[in-house]
Amino acid sequence: MNKFSLHNIELWYTDFKALKNITMDIETNRITAFIGPSGCGKSTLLRCLNRMNDLVKGCRITGQILMDGEDIYEGTDVILLRKRVGMVFQRPNPFPISVYDNISFGPRAHGIKSKDALDEIVERSLRDAAIWDEVKDLLKKNALSLSSGQQQQICIARALSILPEVLLMDEPTSALDPISTSRIEDLVTVLRSKYTVIIVTHNMQQAARISDKAAFFLLGEMIELGDTNQIFTSPQDKRTEDYITGRFG
Predict the structure, then answer these.
(1) Angle, to 10 degrees, between the axis of helix 115-128 and the axis of helix 99-109?
(2) Smallest Cα–Cα separation from 224: which of 36, 49, 66, 44?
(3) How far, CA to CA in Å, does 40 sit from each of 15, 86, 136?
(4) Position 248 pLDDT exceeds 70
(5) Residue of 123, 118, 94 whose CA lies nearest to 108
(6) With 0-12 CB in 10 A as exposed, 13-18 as middle and 19+ as buried, what is 63?
(7) Does residue 5 belong to any structural domain of this protein?
(8) Centroid of chain to Cα 162
(9) Among residues of the chain, what percentage have pLDDT more than 90?
(10) Does the pLDDT of residue 249 top 80, yes or no?
C-alpha cells in the first residue's frame, strides 16, 4: 500500500529547475532512503511532501502528489498536512526551553491543555524516541544542555508528539558522532512499525543498513527506485552503479 504517489513532479526556484519529471510511489510503514550527490534534489523533493517549499520565494511546482489518494496541493489544509507529516532536520534544533516544553509545544498548539494528557504525550513521545529513561528526571532542564545526539532524539520526540503518519528526516545524523548515529539508526528501524519514514542521506552504508527502499537522484531526476538490496547489489542503471561504487559523487 502506498502512502504517497507522485506524478510528474517538476519544481523551479525562480528560473532554476530543481526537480524534473519525478514519478514514484512511497510505501506505507517502510523506510525509503533518498540517495545521491549534493544538489541533486533529494531534500527539495522531501520538502514537497509537507509543502515546506511553499515558504520559499520564487518556488513553483507542477504535477501531483497524492497522500492516501488525496492531492496535498489541492484543497488541503497545510497545517493539518504538517501535523500528519512530521520533519526532523539535519542539525538538532530543539527550542531553547525545557525538554518537557519542547515535546508538549505541538500538542498545546493543537489545543491540548490538560496537564495529565500532556504528561502522557511527553512520556509516550520520549519513549518512542528511545530517550525516556535518560531524560525522565531532566524534563525541566533546557533541551540545549543535552548532547547533540540527545538533542536530535528530542527533536524526533517533538515530531512524534502530534502523532504524525509520516516522518521526514533530512540527513538526521550528519552532524552526529558515530555512537549517536548508531542510536538514531536503531531508533528509525523501530519507528518503521508505526510510521512511514523517508530519509535523505549521503551515507551509503546508512541507507543500506536501515532502508527498505532506495531512490537514487541525479541532477534533479530520479534515476532508479527499488528494494534497497537490489539497488545496492544489482542496480539497473549504470549511473546508479557508478555512484554506489564511488566512481563519482
Answers:
(1) 110
(2) 36
(3) 16, 23, 41
(4) no
(5) 118
(6) middle
(7) no
(8) 15
(9) 91
(10) no
> What are the distances in angstroms from CA 9 to CA 12, 78, 119, 185?
10, 19, 41, 29
Note down the domain range covering 236.
29-40+77-211+221-244
How many other CB atoms are found less than 10 A from the CB of residue 158? 26
Counting beta carbons within 10 angstroms of the beta carbon of residue 35, is it exposed (0 to 12), middle (13 to 18) or buried (19 or more)?
buried
Residue 102: all three cell numbers together: 519542547
Query: What is the C-alpha to C-alpha distance for residues 51 and 72, in angstroms, rounded to an integer?
Result: 8
Q: Kindly report, residue by residue over 198-246, the tens digit of the pLDDT.
A: 999 999 999 999 999 999 999 999 999 999 999 999 999 999 999 998 8
Is the residue at 162 inside a domain? yes
